[in-house]
Every structure is written in structure tokens, then in C-alpha cells.
Amino acid sequence: MATWQPSVSVIRFAPFELDLRKQELRRNGWKVDPQPQPQAFRLVRLLASHPNELITREQIRAVLWPEEVHTELEVLDRRLNFAIRELREVLGDDAQSPQFVETVRKSGYRFVAPVQCVEWPGAGRPEDKAPDNALVTNHGNALTEAAAGAASKRAPSHFTRPDLPSLVLGAVLGAAAMVGGLVAWRLAVNALFRPVITSVSPIEAKRDQQIVIQGHGFGYHYTPLKGLNTAFLAIGDETAHWSAGRTVPQNADDVTLNITTWTDYEIVIEGFSGAYGQNWWALEPGDTIKLLLWNPQTGAGPAIYYAKVSPARDPSPRPKP
What we know:
Elements: E1 8-13, E2 16-19, E3 24-27, E4 30-31, H1 38-48, E5 54-56, H2 57-64, H3 73-91, E6 101-104, E7 108-111, E8 116-119, H4 145-152, H5 164-193, E9 196-200, E10 203-204, E11 211-216, E12 225-228, E13 233-237, E14 242-244, E15 255-262, E16 266-274, E17 288-293, E18 303-310
Parallel strand pairs: 10-18
Antiparallel strand pairs: 1-2, 1-8, 2-3, 3-4, 5-7, 6-7, 9-11, 11-16, 12-15, 13-14, 13-17, 15-16, 17-18
Helix pairs in contact: 1-3
């Protein structure tokens, strides 16, 4: 597995731009909110710097957690699954029809989007240093041929015909105006229709429970979801590193949400489906929960809300003696 060159400053894959020096992900020139967690950022950097290459789960674990050689493999796999899901949430990717991260079952992952790598000025000088956590292997430091080819492309410095510069300039200005208008429109839509969560009912440490999310700008989901995933809602257990919703089931141990009501101001969840309660797929009192919500009609979001898991209440309390 080749690695990215320390001189690479930005990795572009439309409409995203991964700035390795500032450690941030941008979409259409605007900083993505929320930003990927450090593990997910390092993961997308690893995958995007090796386009169309199969990166095995073993290689990913070695890069993301090189110091944890004595950690149980099951724990690292759980963290990796969580990082993959978070990355897909940030990119808006779909595991069944991926635009960016393709799953190679029982092997690893492959970055399938076209990639362009950009070098910062003065690259190659002795004083230039690679960013922290540089991904270095024993297989050299050359970019893949596809990435190197994209990075080496440069616009011509002159034109042979005198009328071409004005034509090209006009086309560039027109395209820039169109892109700027689209970006402004998307920002306006996101600002106007971005969902806002004002309250969430207590989330208990059990499978069957009613969770009521209230606020505004939720949009409408006209099909009840029972045992199915939706691309617009996720409940993640930040403590145990698993999530339900906004994922596409790939294994039998996925957990989904039973959503019965979705209006512009209220969403009602009647509990969890799938493999809840098996292995680590369970809520525990005190766990930190992160809710992410998008508007199905506009795509605006996400709204983010944090909560703590409460102990499960006995639905039929015993009478006091």
C-alpha cells in the first residue's frame, strides 16, 4: 500500500476538499458542520489518498490505532465500524450504492470517487514537514498512479490563438457565477429549513421504549419505518461506539429504529429493532447519546442533540409492602 506524499496539502473529491494542513473537511468550499471526529478524519485521509485501492481492515487498524497492539480485536473492529458509519454520515454516502467509500465484504474498503491531490508551495524543501499522524508505510511514499496523474495536471500557461483567452475567461466567470449561486442557494435553504431539536424525552437502557423528539423544521417522512433504516435520522451511542438509523444493513448485527410518527415538529420512535441487546449493541445507564437529524425534503441539517441514557424503568412496579 503506497502512502500520500508529505507535500500533499489538499485532497479533493467533488464536492469535498480535505485540507491536511488545517485538519478540516470542506464541502463546496464551506467547512462541514459537524467536522469528522479524529478517527473518521484519519480514515477518510487514508482511503482518499489511495483511490481505487483495497485497504484492508488490518491496514486501517494499524494506521488508526498503531499503539494499541494489545487491545482486543473485537474492540478495534467495533471502533472501526463506528468510524466508517460516521464517515458515511458526514459524506452523505450510501453503503449500498456508494459514491465515495465502497465496502469489500470480509476484506476492507475502497475509495471509489475520482481524487485530485494538490501540493503546497515549496514542497520538497528540507524545512517542510508532514502533518501530524502522517501515514507512512514500508512500501514507499509515492501516490497511486491515478492520484499522481490528477495532481500533475496543470492548466496551459498560454494559448496559440489570440481569441481563446477571452472565451475561456468568460466561460470560467460564468461557471463561477453559477457555482456561487448554487452554493448561496444551498446555504440559504440550510439556514431557513435546518431542523432544530428543542427537546428529547428520556432515553432508557432498553429495547422497547417511546422516544419523542420535538422541535421544528423536521420535514415529513410519510412512510412508517419499522425495522428499516432512514437516511435522515441517527441515534449513536458515543460511549459504546455503535449507532442505529442512517445506516444500510450489511450484517445481521445492525440495529435499526422503529419510527411511527414523523412530522415537521415531532418524531416518535417506538424502540429499536434488529440485534439490539446482542454483544455490545445495547444502551447502558450513563451512556452519552448523540442524535443527528436531517430534513427529508430539503436535505438541510443536521440538527444535533446530546443526551444521557437513563436506567430502565419497570413498567409494572411492585407495590410497596
